[in-house]
Write a structure and sequence with these properties.
Layout lengths: L6 E4 L3 H12 L4 H11 L2 E9 H14 L2 E4 L10 E8 L1 H11 L1 H15 L5 E4 L2 E4 L5 E7 L14 H14 L3 E5 L12 H18 L4 E4 L3 H9 L4 E4 L9 H7 L3 E5 L17 H19 L6 E4 L8 H9 L12 E2 L5 H7 L7 H13 L4 E4 L2 H15 L3 H5 L12
Parallel strand pairs: 7-8, 7-14, 8-9, 9-10, 10-11, 11-12, 13-14
Antiparallel strand pairs: 1-2, 2-4, 3-4, 5-6
Helix pairs in contact: 1-2, 3-4, 4-5, 6-7, 7-8, 8-9, 13-14
Length: 416
């Protein structure tokens, strides 16, 4: 069982986004919208697990600040002496509670407020390149150099076909190409490093010479990543979130590459054998925070880190749906978000269709991921999903600049 860590996490607020849109539509100026959001709209933050005495102190501080707090379900699960606490109030009131409590709890609350309110890195730096974030959703095209991809698109060891597919994806709108030489479908077995390299290296070298977009290597092995980066890759996409190989973060840092830190419960071999979560968003967040810490320790900065909640990797349908519904809450971690739902079994479970007939279902999940704050979507059908993301961006990013500006008021006390 993973150690429970103290966390403070802001919950998503649809009312906030709706209010911003209404004010913006009526011609309110930027400062008025900032003031309304920071001082007038409600927020909800979950803090815990706490000893019951500490939780009561937080509740008293919330009352003094004009916020409202209640003890949530037992966070210690089997330990009745510990609980979460849910605090509801304006951003100013939550800031006041954090200041009154101080110590580790207050620091966690302040950190959550700062991360949620401040925009994540506006660029992704990867080996001398900078990908702009925030203006539109970026498209990561999937190039599977495997004989057993779940989606049926694996190209085996046909490097020429894989390079041609990558070129086509770039022509159709891909901003990044993700090259994978080991299937991570449920129940899959690991591939020896030599075989993984034999599959991916010719494709990476070929694409590096022919396309002008960053190339990602989909691997959790530091030895594979090191050689892939040497041959032209720019990003390491690690399904283990820097948990499987202790050297991977260092390899990426030495190459000045970016990393995608993904959540997984278990391994591809066993991840779908009845996965369980007591708090799916909280537990995924804890796991991703561990990956962020490993990246920082290796020397990677925040603008070299992307987070992926790992839809379909050790999750049941209800877990995947909750992740999509509450995607914006991962902004608490202060890094850009990548979401990969393309053709996955969650879509098949909903529409009862095989992999080759999940285009429309994928489109729905991509649109909702964009609405939830995804910076990058990882897809098989680049042309179609580029169009979906473009429309979703046009709808969802209208108030983007105003939403991101909330942090300028977060630490200002409310006047009596």
């Amino acid at each position: 069982m993973r150690k429970q860590t103290l966390r403070a996490r802001l919950l998503n607020s649809l009312a906030r986004d709706e209010a911003i849109a209404e004010l913006h539509a009526r011609g309110s100026d930027k400062s008025a919208v900032e003031l309304s959001v920071a001082r007038g709209l409600g927020r909800a933050m979950i803090v815990g697990p706490l000893a019951l005495q500490d939780a009561q102190e937080v509740r008293n501080a919330a009352k003094e600040s004009g916020a409202f707090a209640v003890l949530a379900k037992l966070a210690g699960r089997a330990d009745p002496s510990r609980a979460d606490i849910l605090i509801m109030g304006s951003a100013g009131q939550l800031t006041a509670v954090a200041a009154a409590i101080g110590a580790e709890v207050g620091e966690r609350m302040e950190g959550a407020l700062a991360s949620f309110n401040a925009p994540p890195a506006r660029v992704l730096r990867c080996r001398g390149r900078e990908l702009e974030l925030g203006g539109r959703t970026l498209i990561m095209g999937i190039v599977n150099v495997t004989p057993d991809s779940f989606s049926g698109d694996g190209l085996g060891t046909d490097a020429e076909a894989a390079v041609a597919q990558g070129r086509q994806m770039v022509a159709e709108g891909a901003d990044i190409l993700d090259i994978g030489g080991e299937s991570t479908r449920p129940g899959s077995e690991p591939v020896p490093e030599e075989e993984e390299l034999r599959r991916v290296l010719p494709v990476i070298e070929g694409l590096a010479a022919e396309v002008d977009v960053p190339i990602s290597i989909d691997t959790y092995k530091s030895s594979v990543a090191a050689i892939a980066l040497e041959k032209g890759a720019h990003i390491v996409n690690d399904i283990s979130g820097l948990h499987a190989d202790g050297q991977l973060a260092q390899v990426a840092a030495e190459a000045q590459a970016a990393v995608v830190i993904m959540h997984i419960q278990g391994t591809p071999r066993d991840m779908q054998k009845d996965p369980k979560y007591a708090d799916v968003i909280g537990q995924i967040s804890d796991y991703l925070e561990e990956g962020i810490a490993a990246a920082a320790q290796a020397g990677l900065s925040r603008d070299q880190v992307v987070l992926d909640p790992g839809i379909g990797f050790g999750k049941k349908l209800e877990h995947n749906l909750e992740i999509l519904r509450r995607l914006r809450e991962f902004r608490n971690l202060g890094c850009p978000l990548l979401v990969g739902t393309s053709r996955k079994s969650m879509i098949g479970a909903i529409v009862d269709l095989p992999v080759e007939e999940r285009l429309e279902g994928t489109a729905a999940t991509v649109a909702l991921a964009v609405a939830g704050g995804a910076d990058i979507v990882r897809v098989h059908d680049v042309k179609e999903m580029s169009r979906v993301a473009k429309v979703a961006d046009a709808i969802c990013r209208v108030t983007h600049e105003l939403q991101e500006s909330e942090h300028t008021w977060a630490d200002r006390p409310k006047k009596e």
